[in-house]
């Protein structure tokens, strides 16, 4: 018996027996929709979380630091011969060049953290900032874009992060506010005033600034002030972040030469800064997250410490994998319940069609052919139920999106949580629906094939 | 063509045994048209069911085209029936969800014959039984006589060596009964198909070449060429 004929006969029955078809389809479509919606929610939530994590935690970057656990006597015979000052655990320019040459590395630059200082404008406003020494030309390779200006080769120039332009306050006002908040920390009015001032943006481009730092190590606390710098560039706020989130990210980027100068001027105590060709932090950017572990391993072989945020991603994946399994389990459970409705409906249908089955047997249909007809019918019911289920799932997802739309995430955070149905979940739902149909159809099909032709014809 | 040897059959109902056929023996040649005549309860329908392989006799053998159908398994019998046996039922037994043409084609569907070949054969047979214009209608749209013509066309589609007809005119009025009998007689003449017609009507049996009469499970008479008497 040809598949096309079996399908045609089965389709004829499906069209004719609308109640049975309806009953079966309702069950299967609900189960199928449950699976698709559950998987889609899991998938969308995971993508959203990963997106958020990527934008905040820089998942494609490796932070390389010196390996302080290694003896400084290292270097070996080869190093001695070249005469270079190579300490095995130190992060040297030579190692930086090796890292830059590694496969999958798109950028590698030192990010020397010099410490914290106060930024002073000419109109006597202040902001607490972190000073970072780096190759200013490479800033854009780390996902930074310039809101204004750009790097300059001229000495005495700096670049500000977006956060550093927020919350500049008059020195006296800042002092008064801090004192008031210290004495009355639960004063919401004061807190609101402080927050609103913290969120105010100042036009810093081409402004002259000075930096000042206090030396707490000396017996009498001393304040050192730097020479004057000009702001030649202001960075944009990173994608997916709001002003509130970026308020604490206040950085001043200076060239490595300026970093050495600042270390001296402000008496900053930052270890290797100042030593030519030795860095305390290098940030390595990798082309794809998948290559992160590989590059990390190679960097570690240079006797350096390397750390990534990958473990957080793995943890997140683990959590979502578990959630997806639970969701899938719920969907499968619903399908099992749905399969009971198919078994009942198909068995009922078998009983009603005993006479027809009897006639077919008399006309030459064997048990296998009868069985195949019924299984095809139930598989078709599964397919139809699955297709309706897909429609249901789109309706449910659009309903959920309308319900929670905008409440999680937001436009300024690079998009809110929108549940999308991944195309890959549709075949999964359909396969589950067909399988449910086939498995539920087995008992009625066997029961139909065993009907005695003569009894079936004579019973009416 | 058909050889029935020492057939006896007993029905079991609860613990009770009811013998319905006793030592039945007869033969039908290829191309013959015979009647199995008997009143209600004579055992003629049981005999038909046994010959069609729908039941197994308590004793005896039935040979169709030299093959003992009593020994065949259900699946083997299904294949055998598909190729060698045609059926005409009293209540037509057409499938309501299929069109007239699809009903006629149904036995070929079980033989995996292509749709185009099936269509060609079914239309030719509908022409032969006089309802070529009803091919795409559904059984419910036809009269009893027309439905029986569809049933006849269906029985012939596999070109079987033997056709069993169970009271083929039982549900029809006299005029239609004559038309159906004439169709069967013509088909027998033209196609040389063997017909075994079970009936309780003497008028129907008179059109056959031979009549086997059953009474209370016994074969009581065998009449040669009753048509010559008319």
TrEMBL record, chain A:
Residues 21-163 form the MacB-like periplasmic core domain. Coiled coil: none annotated. This is FtsX-like permease family protein. The keyword Transmembrane applies. Residues 330-452 form the ABC3 transporter permease C-terminal domain. Pfam families: FtsX, MacB_PCD. It is found in: Cell membrane. The chain crosses the membrane at residues 20-41, 326-346, 379-397, 417-443. PANTHER family: ABC TRANSPORTER PERMEASE YTRF, MEMBRANE COMPONENT OF TRANSPORTER-RELATED. Its main location: membrane. It comes from Paenibacillus monticola. Keywords: Cell membrane, Membrane, Transmembrane, Transmembrane helix. GO terms for cellular component: plasma membrane.
From TrEMBL, chain B:
Coiled coil: none annotated. Residues 2-230 form the ABC transporter domain. Signal peptide: none annotated. CDD domains: ABC_MJ0796_LolCDE_FtsE (cd03255). Keywords: ATP-binding, Nucleotide-binding, Transport. The keyword Ribonucleoprotein does not apply. GO terms for cellular component: membrane protein complex; plasma membrane. The keyword Chloroplast does not apply. One of its GO terms (molecular function) is transmembrane transporter activity. This is ATP-binding cassette domain-containing protein. It comes from Paenibacillus monticola.
């Amino acid at each position: 018996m040809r598949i096309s004929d079996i399908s045609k006969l089965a389709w004829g029955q499906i069209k004719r027996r609308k109640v049975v078809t309806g009953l079966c389809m309702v069950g299967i479509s609900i189960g199928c929709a449950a699976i698709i919606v559950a998987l889609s929610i899991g998938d969308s939530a995971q993508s959203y979380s990963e997106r958020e994590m990527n934008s905040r935690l820089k998942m494609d970057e490796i932070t390389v630091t010196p390996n302080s656990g290694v003896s400084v006597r290292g270097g070996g015979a080869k190093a001695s011969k070249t005469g270079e000052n190579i300490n095995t655990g130190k992060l040297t320019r030579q190692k930086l060049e090796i890292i830059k040459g590694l496969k999958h590395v798109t950028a590698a630059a030192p990010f020397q953290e010099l410490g914290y200082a106060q930024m002073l404008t000419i109109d006597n406003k202040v902001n607490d900032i972190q000073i970072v020494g780096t190759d200013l030309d490479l800033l854009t390779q780390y996902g930074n874009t310039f809101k204004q200006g750009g790097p300059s080769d001229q000495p005495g120039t700096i670049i500000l992060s977006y956060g550093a332009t927020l919350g500049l306050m008059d020195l006296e006002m800042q002092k008064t506010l801090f004192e008031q908040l210290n004495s009355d920390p639960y004063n919401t009015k004061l807190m609101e005033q402080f927050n609103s001032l913290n969120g105010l943006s100042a036009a810093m481009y081409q402004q002259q600034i000075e930096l000042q730092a206090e030396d707490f190590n000396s017996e009498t606390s001393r304040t050192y002030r730097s020479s004057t710098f000009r702001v030649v560039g202001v960075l944009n706020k990173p994608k997916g972040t709001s002003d509130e989130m970026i308020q604490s990210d206040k950085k001043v980027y200076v060239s490595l030469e300026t970093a050495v100068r600042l270390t001296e001027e402000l008496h900053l105590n930052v270890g290797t800064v100042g030593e030519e060709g030795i860095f305390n932090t290098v940030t390595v950017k990798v082309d794809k997250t998948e290559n992160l572990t590989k590059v990390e391993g190679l960097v570690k072989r240079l006797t350096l410490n390397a750390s990534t945020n990958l473990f957080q991603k793995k943890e997140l994946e683990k959590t979502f994998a578990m959630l997806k399994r639970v969701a899938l389990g719920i969907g499968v459970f619903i399908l099992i319940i749905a399969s009971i409705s198919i078994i009942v409906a198909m068995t009922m249908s078998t009983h009603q069609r005993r006479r027809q089955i009897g006639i077919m047997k008399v006309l030459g249909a064997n048990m296998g052919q009868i069985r195949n007809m019924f299984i095809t019918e139930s598989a078709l019911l599964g397919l139809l139920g699955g297709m309706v289920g897909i429609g249901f799932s789109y309706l449910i997802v659009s309903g959920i999106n309308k319900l929670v739309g905008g409440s999680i995430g937001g436009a300024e955070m690079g998009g809110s949580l929108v549940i999308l149905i991944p195309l890959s979940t549709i075949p999964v739902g359909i396969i589950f629906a067909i399988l449910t149909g086939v498995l539920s159809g087995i008992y009625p099909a066997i029961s139909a094939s065993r009907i005695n032709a003569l009894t079936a014809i004579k019973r009416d | 063509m058909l050889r029935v040897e020492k057939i006896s059959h007993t029905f079991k109902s609860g613990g009770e045994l009811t013998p319905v056929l006793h030592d039945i023996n007869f033969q039908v040649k290829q191309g013959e048209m015979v009647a199995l005549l008997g009143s209600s309860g004579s055992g003629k329908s049981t005999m038909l069911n046994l010959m069609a392989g729908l039941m197994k006799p308590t004793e005896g053998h039935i040979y169709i085209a030299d093959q003992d159908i009593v020994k065949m398994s259900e699946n083997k019998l299904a294949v055998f029936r598909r190729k060698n046996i045609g059926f005409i039922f009293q209540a037509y037994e057409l499938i309501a969800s299929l069109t007239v043409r699809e009903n006629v084609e149904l036995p070929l569907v079980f033989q995996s014959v292509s749709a185009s070949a099936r269509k060609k054969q079914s239309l030719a047979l509908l022409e032969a039984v006089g309802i070529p214009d009803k091919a795409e209608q559904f059984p419910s749209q036809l009269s009893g006589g027309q439905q029986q013509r569809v049933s006849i066309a269906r029985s012939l589609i596999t070109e079987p060596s033997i056709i069993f007809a169970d009271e083929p005119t039982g549900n029809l009025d006299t005029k239609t009964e004559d038309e159906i009998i004439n169709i069967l007689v013509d088909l027998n003449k033209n196609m040389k198909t063997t017909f075994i017609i079970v009936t309780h009507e003497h008028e129907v049996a008179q059109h056959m070449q031979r009549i086997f009469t059953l009474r209370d499970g016994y074969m009581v008479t065998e009449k040669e060429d009753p048509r010559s008497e008319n």
